[in-house]
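Lecture notes, part 5. Sequence design as translation. It can be helpful to think of inverse folding as translation between two languages: the language of shapes and the language of residues. The source text, in structure tokens, appears below.
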């Protein structure tokens, strides 16, 4: 009746009032106003049925699984990733090599170090694959195996270098002395003579120094031309193509070219001298400097150039103060790598600079001895300890050049806050 009276308008409909203000109280049991009681009851009943239908793990099973790790190597009890102990991989590797050694020695009657190393390493990979996946899970095991492969590649790359340095030092120590570093090979057949490689050190410094003075500025300026002035032009593409061809030229061909070139422009200098050797090394070093400098200049962001132009700085000054200064560490490293490559060349210098036994401080007056040619000459004469001594001095010079390059790159590198 009340609803019908309200519909007819005989009883005015009261405005809804907020709870606690004299109006109707909210329904008991947390029911929301306007929602039918039957709908709420049905929803609660459905939730209860769904909850009861879910399978509950047994208490014993929960206790058993709480200490296990999931597929990702997660400890359910602590919520942390389970990892193998430190040094576990190294211990397994040593054990695999030991077992493989015993197997080769007693079963196959051989002690091949290469076979033991390879077979033991393969067994190690299989064991670590199984153990790491069981303990650390799929994700942790994959990470562990990737780390093992990367570390193995590092060792394979470093071991030959260390072996080379050790062999050079070990065989060169008997020949190293002050007289060996200071004397030449003149009069070495006399009784009590102390042969040395001083003339080869002097010749190497003269020829490679001249090469660097010519090739480094020429290569850097060529790279600046290709990157900053003729970027994408047809002439730049031609120069780049020629530089690539020069990079692949055999060193002996560079020596023949230098001998012919110097013989044409200065026929009075003779057939063999230090200048020919320097020209041959310039032909080999310049394309390396060009390609490295070109890559370093392309790395420099165009935003730096545009910011400099926006301040009214000229293009030439932007190249010198911004572009070259930013790329200086990479350029210096590339120049040192190029110099280290040509300082060990022997084939072009055997054609151009020859192999005299005495000192010669002139580039244009007669043959000049260099360290690579000295090593080859001593090997040909059967004087192996002197050949090893020359190799050690050559390695030391290359190391010193690398240290100087790192210092220069650090001093002139852009300062960061």
């Amino acid at each position: 009746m009340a609803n019908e009276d309200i519909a007819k308008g005989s009883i005015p409909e009261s405005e809804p009032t907020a709870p606690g203000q004299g109006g109707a109280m909210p329904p008991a049991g947390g029911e929301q106003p306007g929602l039918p009681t039957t709908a709420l009851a049905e929803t609660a009943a459905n939730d209860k049925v769904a909850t009861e239908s879910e399978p509950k793990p047994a208490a014993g099973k929960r206790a058993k699984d709480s200490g296990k790790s999931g597929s990702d190597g997660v400890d359910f009890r602590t919520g942390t990733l389970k990892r193998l102990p430190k040094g576990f991989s190294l211990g397994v590797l040593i054990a695999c090599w030991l077992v493989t050694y015993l197997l080769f020695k007693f079963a196959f009657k051989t002690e091949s170090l290469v076979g033991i190393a390879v077979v033991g390493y393969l067994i190690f990979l299989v064991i670590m694959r199984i153990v790491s996946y069981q303990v650390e899970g799929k994700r942790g095991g994959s990470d562990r195996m990737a780390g093992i492969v990367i570390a193995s590649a590092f060792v394979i790359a470093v071991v030959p270098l260390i072996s080379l340095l050790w062999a050079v030092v070990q065989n060169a120590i008997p020949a190293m002395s002050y007289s060996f570093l200071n004397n030449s090979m003149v009069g070495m057949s006399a009784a009590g003579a102390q042969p040395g490689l001083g003339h080869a050190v002097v010749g190497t410094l003269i020829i490679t120094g001249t090469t660097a003075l010519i090739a480094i500025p020429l290569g850097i300026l060529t790279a600046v031309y290709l990157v900053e002035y003729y970027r994408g032009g047809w002439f730049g593409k031609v120069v780049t193509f020629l530089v690539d061809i020069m990079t692949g030229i055999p060193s002996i061909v560079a020596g023949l070219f230098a001998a012919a070139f110097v013989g044409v422009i200065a026929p009075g200098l003779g057939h063999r001298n230090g200048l020919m050797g320097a020209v041959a090394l310039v032909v080999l070093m310049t394309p390396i400097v060009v390609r490295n400098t070109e890559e370093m200049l392309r790395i420099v962001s165009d935003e730096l150039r545009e910011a400099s132009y926006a301040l009214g700085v000229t293009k030439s000054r932007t190249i010198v103060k911004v572009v070259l200064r930013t790329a200086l560490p990479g350029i210096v490293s590339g120049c040192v790598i190029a110099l280290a490559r040509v300082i060990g060349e022997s084939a072009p210098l055997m054609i151009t600079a020859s192999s005299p036994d005495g000192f010669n401080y002139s580039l244009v007056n007669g043959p000049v001895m260099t360290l690579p040619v000295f090593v080859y000459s001593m090997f040909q004469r059967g004087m192996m300890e002197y050949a090893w001594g020359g190799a050690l001095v050559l390695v030391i010079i290359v190391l010193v050049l690398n240290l100087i390059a790192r210092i220069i790159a650090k001093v002139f590198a852009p300062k960061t806050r």
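The translated text above is only one of many valid answers, since several sequences can fold into similar shapes. The longest helix spans residues 113-172.
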